[in-house]
Amino acid sequence: MKLAIFQMNSVDRSVTENAALFDQACADAKSGNADLIIFPEMALTGYNIGADRIRKLAEPRDGPMIQTLRDMAKHHRIGVVCGFPELDGVQVFNAAVIIDAAGSVLSICRKAHLFGDVDRAAFSPADTLCPLVQFGDWSVGFAICYDVEFPELVRAYALAGADIVLVPTANMLPYIGIATRVVPARAEENEIYVAYANRVGREGAFEYCGLSCVVGPDGNDVARAGRNEELMIADISKETIAHIRSSLSHLNDRRSDLYPL
Prior knowledge:
- The chain is 31% helix and 29% strand.
- The chain is of the alpha/beta class.
- A hairpin with a 2-residue loop joins strand 6 (133-135) and strand 7 (138-142).
- Helix 1 packs parallel to helix 3 (64-76).
- The relative contact order is 0.16.
């Protein structure tokens, strides 16, 4: 599978302006034969924009934002993952949608671990782990930003059969180590791919650190972005996962009798 990540510059744009930018990114990714493109956390609206503005922009899962993404995916014949604020009754969730190339919503996942005041002021936490999603013949798990810093979450996905965990994120300075150390560790210790889609630029007091990446099941980078806006495309294969697990498998050798996960 070819996987694209759009590392976006977080300038102040409307939802409509972001959608136009994403439409072009989908076109460019498809021209590179990508099967799936991942946009960052809260990509459509902005992330550090204040709880009041987030609540005003939040929409239910059948709202116009999701329909725009569905139309985009169908038009370009590419799968799309994108973060957005999901309104469910009176609650707002930091969510991400995955849409297939036919424009069908496969799942909407919610952030489980809320990061500091920026999340806690605006969102409710997910009360369950998002089930694995089948994208083609790939089993896909989701970790939204801070979620990937909790090894139990990614391990739970690996034990459930995940081939890859997708991480729409909005990670800022000084936390570069998440992209350079934590993400590779999650991939290697679970023998899966991890795809980490970050932002760059400034948004309020946050300066996003970029370094989006696709890391293989051996913990090595398949692709790594820098500190500017860019579209990157990585080739990933299930044969690589099988090869890594055939020589040494942490998942097979773990002592499940000593701990619950």
